[in-house]
Amino acid sequence: MYRFFVQPQINAVTQKLAGYELLLRSYCHDFWVTPKDFTAVPMDQQMSLSYEEITNIFRDHQDNPQIAFNLNRAQFTDQHTIGHLIHLKKSIPGLRLVVELTKAPTLTDIHQYVALYRAYHIELNLDDVGTDNPWHPAVREILPFMDGIKFAMQNFRLQHRQADLLGSLKTWRAVADMYQLGFTVEGIEDQDDVALAQEYNAELTQGYYYSKPVPYCG
């Protein structure tokens, strides 16, 4: 059994709800867990599940908060996946859909597929910059095609790289300015993290300080 959990994304300045990230979970031995293989769940099933969650969210929020949806590199370039996303976008009036790319696609991939995403106003954000997607040529060359980047502070903590966190945060804030990108900081765990994200002019914040991923219940 699968379903999407949600985690709120918060306006860093006003600290009000701006959107939700949808996070796929599977039911295993009486617990909801992160699937080991996201591609094991057919995309048409994921779209059906996400449609249900998004319509529930929009029922309760008349301002239509943005919805973030994760894709890996193979999914980003899969024409069936793109078709399902376009169908989802067209099926829900007012949907602001943000695709968070967990791995940077190649420049060839971008040139081949980005126009399809742009044609239907599906935004593209590069996830986990500084850790899973570090500063290197393959990342730099696709940044002009991105709408935003997401800096995950929790990755530095999990990797015991806290000493690198501030320097990397400063670097990626400068990158966001250079390429005119939206800047999201996740891994917010306390008020000090909120203040840090505000100091570096994040547009959005996300983390356990606000909520762990949970089933949406309105």
Topology:
Blueprint: E1 2-11, E2 17-28, E3 31-33, H1 43-60, E4 66-71, H2 73-76, H3 79-91, E5 97-101, H4 107-119, E6 123-129, H5 137-140, E7 148-152, H6 153-158, H7 162-179, E8 182-186, H8 191-199, E9 204-206
Parallel strand pairs: 2-4, 4-5, 5-6, 6-7, 7-8, 8-9
Antiparallel strand pairs: 1-2, 1-9, 2-3
Helix pairs in contact: 1-3
Overall description:
It is a single chain. By secondary structure, this protein is an alpha/beta fold. It has eight helices and nine strands. The protein has an eight-stranded mixed barrel. The longest helix is centred in the N-terminal third of the chain and has 18 residues, at 43-60. The radius of gyration is 17 Å and the shape is globular.
Question: Biggest β-sheet: count, sense, barrel?
Answer: 8 strands, mixed, barrel
Mean pLDDT: 95
Helix content: 25-40%
Spatial strand sequence of the major β-sheet: 1-2-4-5-6-7-8-9
Number of helices: 8
Radius of gyration: 17 Å
Termini, distance in Å?
A: 21 Å
Q: Stretches where pLDDT falls below 50 for ≥5 residues? A: none
β-sheet strand percentage? 25-35%
Structural class: alpha/beta
N to C succession of SSEs: EEEHEHHEHEHEHHEHE
Q: What is the approximate shape?
A: globular
Annotation, overall tally of beta strands: 9
